[in-house]
Specification:
Elements lengths: L1 H29 L24 E2 L2 E2 L3 E4 L5 E3 L4 E9 L3 E8 L4 E7 L28 E2 L4 E4 L12 E7 L9 H5 L13 E13 L3 E12 L3 E3 L4 E6 L5 E5 L7 E2 L10 E6 L2 E2 L2 H5 L7 E7 L2
Parallel strand pairs: 15-19
Antiparallel strand pairs: 1-2, 3-10, 4-9, 5-6, 5-8, 6-7, 7-10, 11-12, 11-17, 11-18, 12-13, 12-14, 15-16, 17-19
The structure holds zinc ion.
Amino acid sequence: MISLRTTARGTLALALALLVTLLVGKAAAGSKQPPNTIVFPVLGPTVYIDDFGQPRPGGPHQGIDILAPKRALALAAEPGKVKFWTHSAGAGCMLYLYGASGTNYYYIHLNNDLTNGNDNRGKCVAGTAYARGLKTGAKVSAGQVVGYVGDSGDANGIHPHLHFELHPNGGHAVDPYQSLQTGQHLLFAAPRGTPVTLELRGTVVSTTTDGLRLKVGPVAAFPLGQRQPKLGRKLLIEVPTSATIQTVKKWGAPGTPAALVDAQPGQPVDLWTTAAPATMKAERGDDMALNASLVSLLVR
Ligand SMILES: [Zn+2]
C-alpha cells in the first residue's frame, strides 16, 4: 500500500516536473514578449488613460489613445521594420512597426493635414503622415521618428491622438498601458550620430564633483527645433572642467564667473550641453550621458 502510494506520488511529481519543463521550454522557445522597456511612442507632453477594451462603435478598443499636440513626433517603440498602411477608412494614415522582439506596434490616425487647420488635404505619405524620408519597408532604430500625430481616419475632427496598439508575437492586441507607463520618455529624437545641443531649464537639485543634478522644465534641442515645455524629470549632467559656469541676474544677461559648488538646491539654472553626436543614452538623458558646456545660475 505504502509503496503504491509512493509510486503514485512519484508519478504525479514526474508529471508535474514534465509539465513545468514543457511550459518553461515553450516560453523560452517562443520568448517573443514585448521588451521590458519600450521607448514611449510620442515625444513631448501627452495625456492618456487605460482605455483599452472600452466599448467603441466597432467593438472593444484595441489600443490606447495617446492625446498629443498636432504633429507631435511619433517614435519607434523599439528597433524594427516599418510598413505604411493607407487603405483603412477607420485607421486613416497608419503605420506598422514590426519590432525586433517579435512584437508588432500599430500607429493609427497619423497626420493628414497640410495646414494647422483640419483640412484633410494631406496624403498618407512621408513628410505628412510619416517621417520625412521614411520609406515603407525601412529599418528603424528605437526612438527614431516614424510619423506625426494627427486625426486621420475616424478620428477626423477630434483631438489629435495616437491610437497605439501592442501585439506581442504578432498575435492579438493586448493592453499597452503598463508598457506606456514604464516607457522611456526621450529628451529629443535624432538620427544616431547627428550633432545635437540641448538647452535645459530647471532648478538645481544637487551637485557632485563633476556633475549637476537638475529638475528639468523646458527642453529645446538644436538644430532639430524640438521643444518640450515641461519635461518634469531629474537629470544628472556631467560638468567637465572645460564648462563655463556663471551666475546671472537675469537670463541672457552678462555672467559672473562661478563654480559648481556655488549651485544651491532650488536655484534656477539654464544649462547648455556640448554639441555631441546623438546616442540612445543622450536621447534618454541617462546619468552623465550629457555634457554641460555652459551653466548659468540665476541669482536674485
Ligand atoms: Zn483609439
